Amino acid sequence: MPPKAVKVPKTDPKAFNPNRSAGKLLLAQTLHVREALIKHMEELAKVLAVDVRSIKTEGDVSEYIRQATTILHQQGRKRERK
Predict the structure, then answer these.
(1) What is the chain's percent helix, strand, coil content, to nearest 5?
(2) Mean pLDDT of 19-27
């Protein structure tokens, strides 16, 4: 039996005011997004720090591509491989 759909009313167009001061929840969410971006910057810097001319073996290539792909495709991290 499929779950029942929940009807959500449309948001009043006046609900968003670009000039209104941001509340605590929005500011906390902004900090959370910033922390996530910093984490990704650190991961990216680590991969970019590798001198690709130092990559000599298929294993080296495999590891480099794995690290880069993990950053580029974040949704793939949580999936388990069969």
Answers:
(1) 60, 0, 40
(2) 93
